[in-house]
Write a structure and sequence with these properties.
single chain, 149 residues, mainly alpha, Arc Repressor Mutant, subunit A, 3 domains, elongated
Amino acid sequence: MSELKEVEKVALNLLARREHSQAELKSKLRLRKFDETTIESVLAHLIKNDFQSDNRFTEIYVRMRSRLGYGPSRIAQELQQRGASNELINQYLTGDLDWVKMAAHVRQKRFGRLIPTGFKEQAKQKHFLHYRGFTTDQIKAVFNDDDDR
């Protein structure tokens, strides 16, 4: 089997398991010691035929991580590490997601319905939300909102 076919086969197997960014795919193919020009050629072919799409990867990744209770800051950082462009990251993170509502849900799921009045317990919960990737403004909104979310 020619190297071109071998690289394409490996790339398609990786994409069959889950979406990959172009940078992730390139990195995984490099680890297998394939020729750089062959990798570039195969990636161009996969992109042209819509087997690989950074747009689709970013959309799916944002949806998946937000459903798991992660906030926009953490998701953006993870996407940058995976090679997604800032333009795509901003496009999908500023979409129709209500991050304050999501942060409230994550807080409630972990700590219960009642918002604590004590400083120590509030600080613990705020730290948890910050670790999960929610912004300071989103966290403040969760703790200042009397409305049941």
